[in-house]
Amino acid sequence: MLAKTxxxxxxxxxxxxxxQPPPQSCTQPLSTIDSTVLRFTPAGAIWIYDAPxxxxxxPSNILTSLRKALSYYPQWCGQLCWTPFNPSxxxxxxxxxxxxxxxxxxxxxxxxxxxxxxxxxxxILPDAAERSxxxxxxxxxPSHELFPATNLAFVDASTxxxxxxxxxxxxxxxxxxxxxxxxxxxxxxxxxxxxxFMKDWANLHRDPLFTPSPMFSPSTLSxxxxxxxxxxxxxxxxxxxxxxxxxxxxxxxxxxxFAPSWAQSAMTPPPELANxxxxxPGIPPPWELWDQSAPAKKVVxxxxxxxxxxxxxxxxxxxxxISQHAALVSHIWLSLLHARATSESSAMASxxxxxxxxxxxxxxxxxxxxxxxxxPPLPTNxxxxxxxxxxxxxxxxxxxxxxxxxxxxGLSLPDTATALTKALATFDEERVAALLHEAAFxxxxxxxWNSVLGTRNVIVTSWVRAGVWDVDFGGGxxxxxxxxxxxxxxxxxxxxxxxxxxxxKEGTGHWAEHGVDVLVSARAEVVDELVGGGMVGxxx
Length: 540
Fold this sequence. Notes:
Layout: E1 8-16, E2 26-29, H1 32-36, E3 43-49, H2 59-72, E4 79-82, E5 98-102, E6 110-117, H3 121-124, H4 128-131, E7 166-173, E8 178-184, H5 191-206, H6 218-222, H7 236-242, E9 250-251, H8 261-264, E10 296-303, H9 305-315, H10 324-348, H11 353-358, E11 361-369, E12 387-395, H12 413-425, H13 429-440, E13 448-449, E14 457-462, E15 478-483, E16 491-496, E17 516-523, H14 524-532
Parallel strand pairs: 6-7, 11-14, 14-16
Antiparallel strand pairs: 1-6, 2-5, 3-8, 3-15, 4-5, 7-8, 9-13, 10-17, 11-12, 16-17
Helix pairs in contact: 2-5, 7-13, 9-10, 10-12, 10-14
Pfam family, one: Transferase
Region (Disordered): 394-413
GO molecular function, one term: acyltransferase activity, transferring groups other than amino-acyl groups
């Protein structure tokens, strides 16, 4: 029986600052896109390393290298807050835009907690080879204990003063293993930024002469927009172009009786806009399709390279131009939809008319980085959270007549993969530039949501090629990486599996050559059906 708790002992808790502070204080508005993710779950992950064979891990030395890394990332020690509201100054001073101030002695710094567990890592966490043998439920591993309890800035979408934008916890285990957990306000970092920082920190720990070269320039992204984003009003033609991408777009403030109490209490426009003419209410989020009281859980599904090839072949029977990544995501999506249809078919009969109206389509929203999609492109070391969501929509299936068989709606893997591929293709350079123009003129930054959870929705984030397994602190082998992911109904993370040969680097071959791990969070009964129904594993 695996441990239910890590029995952590608190060793220290402090706020760290760069070993070489900036020469002066700076204030920089974040990009228009950064501000839109204010309400997102924080960006974060845990890296767990086996015990070194020689020199044991030294938390003191690791924190010394962290302070050096922060000298290249001084922004992470700074204070997040709202920009002063004054639209006449341009896009950065419209309502609820976020800025960052750093380089002051009063900076919040990075919260760092050091703990020790009396457990050994093998007692609580199977290795990658063992986890790859079948579906594995992370609930058996209490990873939540490895994250600090400190609140991040804007954790409630409003409070920021004195709160850090980054928090870190180091945990040593009795066997000599080490866990490093990092959590950041999402306005500061997406998965790419998080992994860029972690690799730079690890490289500095191994080689003090290493010189990171992160690019923190939020306005560079904002001004990749088409048109004049500082004009008094948006360009209608560009708004129409932006609206031609394949997406869902929900108005968080649109009136609806189905909103939960916490959302209803927040559905008042900011006071700064009390005398402003606002855009007409749009489509409200489908709150009625998300039962937040229903138990949810996570499972990790492992796919071998051979399975990925088989899934791709099944997705492209006529040689369609569909990537292996799109094929895998489509297979997961279709399998999850069938699991939902099977587990929820009896409940569907008692749904309200409003719920029935929305049940005809299922939506997958896939997180996209804008770095390669703007003109000119931005490098992978560009910091921030430059992400949007593409949405593909397909008919919600009836319960499957058998494992691996199509539903009565006739939905197939090729159809699903084609729908996803076509949705992604709409995010070309012209339309992405128009999206940036649109975001600059939103009444306030968090009004519109392009992704939601619930029985007809799934949000997919890919950490493929982010380099998660290349975060090497020079000790033991990386045993496990877990993205920060709440247990809710409809989240999926795709990432390379940790089965690379000793010395192999993540970017040196095909992304799926050592297998792929897919972390799925959904309602508990749906996860059980997904694992036990047979459809998701039919290419083994």
